[in-house]
Prior knowledge:
The structure holds two protein chains of two kinds.
Chain A: E1 2-3, E2 8-15, E3 18-25, H1 30-37, E4 56-59, E5 62-65, E6 78-80, H2 94-101, H3 111-118, H4 130-136, H5 148-167
Parallel strand pairs in A: 2-6
Antiparallel strand pairs in A: 2-3, 4-5, 4-6
Chain B: E1 7-9, H1 14-24, E2 28-31, H2 37-42, E3 50-53, E4 65-67, E5 70-73, H3 79-84, H4 86-91, H5 93-98, H6 105-108, H7 113-119, H8 125-132, E6 136-141, E7 144-149, E8 154-156, E9 159-160, E10 167-174, E11 180-187, E12 197-206, E13 209-217, E14 224-231, H9 232-236, H10 238-251, H11 262-289
Parallel strand pairs in B: 1-3, 2-3
Antiparallel strand pairs in B: 4-5, 5-10, 6-7, 6-10, 8-9, 11-12, 12-13, 13-14
Helix pairs in contact in B: 10-11
Amino acid sequence: MALNPGESTRIELTVNSVAHQVDVEARWLLSDVLRHTIGLTGTHVGCEHGVCGCCTVLIDGEPARSCLMFAVQADGAAITTVEGLAASDGELHPLQESFKTHHGLQCGYCTPGFLMTALPIYKQALEMSDEELRRAISGQLCRCTGYAGILEAIRGAAGIERSRVGDGS
Amino acid sequence: MKPAPFTYHRPESRAEVDALKAELGSEAKILAGGQSLIPIMNMRLSSPAHLIDLNHLHDEGAEPVLDGGCVTVGPLVRQSSAERSALVAKRVPLLAETMEFVAHPAIRNRGTVVGSIAHADPAAELPALLAVLRGEVVARSSAGPRTIPAGDCFIGPLENSLEDTEWLEEVRWPVAGDDQGFAFEEFARRSGDYALCGVAAMATRAGTTTTVALGYLGMGDVPVCIEFSLDAAALASTELEDAVAEVVEGHLDPGEDIHATVAFRSHLARRLGIKAARRAAANAGERGAA
């Protein structure tokens, strides 16, 4: 296929388990399509060149920068954004609950990127050394709380997860 | 911060890519991981008229594979796959050791090994590694494949030696010998940033003599590789320090900017070079004894 400037093509994105068919131009970034076309503004846009990590989402289960991918490239992909974390009844995801408890956020701008980066690893976080965990989140920048609370929050989420499973809730 | 308009092409075979490159030449850039290309397009430092997206090529491997004396990496092997590969860990230990210095985990999930080589950034890790290991790349076009040694691959900052109709289909990493040891060192202000200075070392033992190859990144327009030979006593003494100092003074061309002075970069090149050379030589001893 070839898609010329100004032309659109229809792509299919599964975002948080909901299928969306959207018309996109080739140069539209995935971050912009998630926010402007699909209306999921939880994915934040900071530097738009891959440095700050705010726009990180899961693409087929792996964290990636949504500002460094054209939406047309994500055709057929399964994407998870921060809106996909909380349960449908409003119960917060263990990570969200723990960021709240441990002061893992202040202004909240970087938080969606931290949550999505932590999502595939937080269950192992209690077994990770400080250095390993810091490395794992080194691609995310926070300019207000600093990182100590964020490390505690990610570790705390593993504990919340375990206690919830223990309760059978 | 949005890219300029371009025509997007989605070929399904390598031959289709050849045909597009034959028709469009330098107007068309290859899009694989996009982790270097899309930032420079977002910043409008580059506005190619055409992008050829390799991500929908059929039957492309996602993992590095062993092929004779090399571990070969195809155009859609992500950096994270190379990082996790047991084959790479065993056969190309220098590549395995260095992957965690390449950007951040989320970038490595998309970025490709071949793309990093094609991008030819003199401050990036993988081109310096390929140069010090004396690897090769395979360029292809509708005229067929062409093998290029790493030493002839990088000709300037962000400039490789491919023709306008060619594109990179493979990078070949030589398998480590039992008499060889490796080490990688770099200094960066923040984890995952471009390093102020970095160096890859390969030590090869022959009897009592050890040949050390140092490959520097961020110290010139292209990766800089220099070799010298020392005996075991010299490696442990100030003779090694003198040999590295000679390399730094005679062959490196560090720049000066807001992040570091020439003097600081040269200091880093000496200290990191000595550290990497000693560690590589010690590893060569261990591998040889194993």
